[in-house]
Fold these 2 entries.
Entry 1:
Amino acid sequence: MLGDKDYKAVRKGNKEAFRKLFCHYYPRLKAYVATILNDDTIAEDIVQDAFLYVWEHPAELPKENDFRSYLYRLVYTRSIDYIRRMQVKDQYYTLVYEEYAKECEALLEGEGETLEKLYTKDFYQELYELLQQIPKPRREVFLLAYIEGRKAREIAEQLNLPQRTVESHLYLTLKYLKEHMDKRHFVLLLLLSLPF
C-alpha cells in the first residue's frame, strides 16, 4: 500500500516511489479505461500517457488524499478526448458514449461492488425479458455482440448484412434497453462490453 512518504517522494521525482505508484494504480486505471473504450490496447496507451504526464509534471500532483481521484480524472479526461478525436459515427454517439463513461465512472468508485452486481439474478432476468420484446434480427445481433463479444464487422460477415445495418441494430437495441431497463442494470450491461 502506498503511504504519505511515497506520494511525497513521487512529487520530488523519486523513481522507485513512482514505480510503486505505477504498479499499484496501473491495472486499476487500465481496467477503468478499457471499460469506457472497450479496447485494451488503447486503454494501455492512455494510461501510460497519463503516467508519463505525472512523471513529467510532479509539481501538479495533489495531496495524497486526493491522489486516487486525480489519477482517475486524468485518464477519464483522456478517454473522452480520444472518443472525440475518433469522431464516433456521429455527434449523437459521442454524447451517448460520454454519458456512459460518466455513469461508469460513478459506479467504479466502489470497484469490487460493481462486479458482484453484474451477476445478480435480477440483472439477467430483466435483460432476458426485454430482449424477448425486440425483433429477432436485432436480438440475434445483440447477442453476438454482447454474449460472444463479436465486433460489428464480424457480425456483418457472419450474417451477410451491411455493417451499417448491424450497427443500427445495436444502436436501436441499446436505445430500447436504456429506455426500459433499470438505470443501474443498464450501466452494468455496458460494463460487459461496448461492441463498436
Note: The chain has a mean pLDDT of 77.
Entry 2:
Amino acid sequence: MQLKSYLLFMLFFISSLVFSYGCEHSEEKKTTSGIKKEIKQPNIVLLFIDDYGWSDIGYRNNTFNTPNLDQLKKESLDFQRAYIPTPTCSPSRYSLLTGKEAVRGQMVRHISIDPNNPEAKFSLWPTDPVQMPSINYMPLDEITYAERLKEYGYYNMFIGKWHLGHTGRYPVDQGFDAEFGATNAGHPKSYYYPFFKEKDDPKGFLKSGVKEGDYLTDVLTDGAVDFIENYDKNQPFMLSFWYYSVHSPSIGRKDLLKKYHDAGLEGRYAHHAAMVEAMDASVGRVRKALVDKGIADNTIIIVLSDQGGAYSNAPLSGGKKGGNTLGEGGARVPFMIHYPGVTKPNSESNVPVQSIDLYPTLIEIASGKACKDEQIQGISLMPLLKGENFKARNLYFFRSYEDQYAAVISGYWKLIKYHSDKFQLFNIEKDISEKNNLIDHGLEIEIELKNNLSKWEEEAVPTY
C-alpha cells in the first residue's frame, strides 16, 4: 500500500514538472515570438531642398502650388521654427551630415574653389570685412550620419547636390554606399540638359542616359524612384535626396510656366514658382514609389531646406541675399517629419530647433537608443516627435560674408551681432517681421544674450 502511494505521488510530481515546464516553455516561445514581431527599423527618406523659403509653400502662401507638400504637412509634425546654424549652401550640408555647427569645422561660407589653386585648403571672400578663411571641403575624418547609420545595418543612397568637396571627397567617401547626381558644382548652369559644365560632372552622373529637353529635377527624381522600386536588400535604407532646385538659375519647367504668367507673376519669380511646383511633384513621385513598393507605412519622410529663399520671405525679414541672412527669412526654413505611428498627423511645434538635431535623431531612430556622440552639438528631436517635453536651450548662428555675422536665439528672443559692433534684439513672438529693434531698451535679456553669444564665440569660432 505504501509502495502504491509512493508511485502515485511520484507520478503526480513528474506530471506537475512536465506541465510546469510546458507552461514556462510556452511563455518563452511567446516572448521570443514577440521579439521577432517588433517593428522593423524604418526606412528613412530625407528630402533636402536648396534655397527653399519658409514662405514658399502653398499652405502659407497661395502663390505656390504645392499639393504634395501640403498633404505631407497634414500627415506630419511641422516645425514652425526650424533653423540652419550657418544658412548657406556648403555649411548647411556640413551641419546636417555631422550634427555639428559648421563654424567649428572652419566652414563659415559656401565652398568657393580657386581654379588657379584647386587644392587650396581655404578660400577668402572678397567682401568679407574680416577676411575669415573658410575651408574648401568637409574633412574625411568627420563622422557623418551615413557612417553611423551603417553601423546599425542601414544602406545609404545619396542623390543630388553635394557641394562638400570634389572627387575623392564625394558621398561614397563619407559613408554612403552609392551615389547619383553628385557633382563639383554648387548649382547647375541650366535645369535643362546639358545641366553642368564638363569639368563639374567628372563622374558623368548627369551625362549618360539624358537628352536635350530633360529637366534636372525630373532626372534626379527618376533616380530616386528607380532606387526605391528596385531596392531588394534585406536591410533598411536611408535615401538622402538633396535637390539642386530651387537654387538659381531660376529656370522653371516650361509646361508649368504659363499658369504663373497668367497669374500675373513676372520674370524670374514666375520661373521660381514653376520650379517649386516641379519640386513638389517630385516629392509626390517619391511618396508614390514608397506606396507602390508597399513600404510607406514603415518609411519616415523628412523635408528640410538648406536656407531661406532668394525671393520674398514675407512675413519674415531677410533672406538668402541682402545682408540679412541671419534674419528669420534667411535662417528659418521649412521642416517637417512624417514618422508613421509616432508623429501626430497635422501637428505643429513652435520649439526652436536646428538642422544639427537631425543627426542624433537619426541615430536614435536607427538604434533605438539615445545618441551618445560627444562631438556633436545637436540634440535628438525624438521627444518632440513623440509629443513629449523638450529641454530649452540656446541656438547659435555664424556666417562670414558681410557685416552681420552672428546670432543667438533663446526662446522667442533673438540677438543679432555685426562686425561693426552693432546689435539688434527682437521678440520673434510679438514681432515675426523683426521690425522693432529692442536694443538699448534696458532689457535684462539683452545683457544675458550678449554674454551668452560672447562665450559661445570664444568656444566655437576657430582662430587661425
Note: Residues 1-37 have pLDDT under 50 and may be disordered.
